[in-house]
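We emphasize that the prediction below concerns an isolated chain of 129 residues; any contacts that depend on oligomerization or on bound cofactors are therefore not represented. The input was used exactly as deposited, without trimming of termini.
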Amino acid sequence: MGAGTTHWLLIRGRGDRPLDARVDSAAIRSQGSSRRPSVEPGEVCILYASVWQAIFGVAEVTGDPEHDPSRERWAWRFAIRPLIVVPDLHDAPAVEEAGIWPQSLWRHSHIRLSDEQFDAARRLIDLSA
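Result of the prediction step, given as a token string:
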């Protein structure tokens, strides 16, 4: 990726609603956030299954963040398109293998990744998909 490119980790699934083990890539269309996200169309993200503590895909941001004032939680949304997905979370690499620690992800919908973290995560997903 080019210099100045921002990479993100998108946190998906929660303790009360974990992701299913089988990943339906067609259902991955958007990401919610409680605050206005800093993402921009064209940026590339790593998908993270929070309950599984595993990284399972690479996606591209395809739309600007939009606010839905009728929603109390996760009122911000932006469109994403999966580029590559590990079809079964049992086969997905642990997030720690990419140098990302689950303790740092608590209560976030997305976090910024370093180039090193993104590159490591992308390699691991490519090998697992």
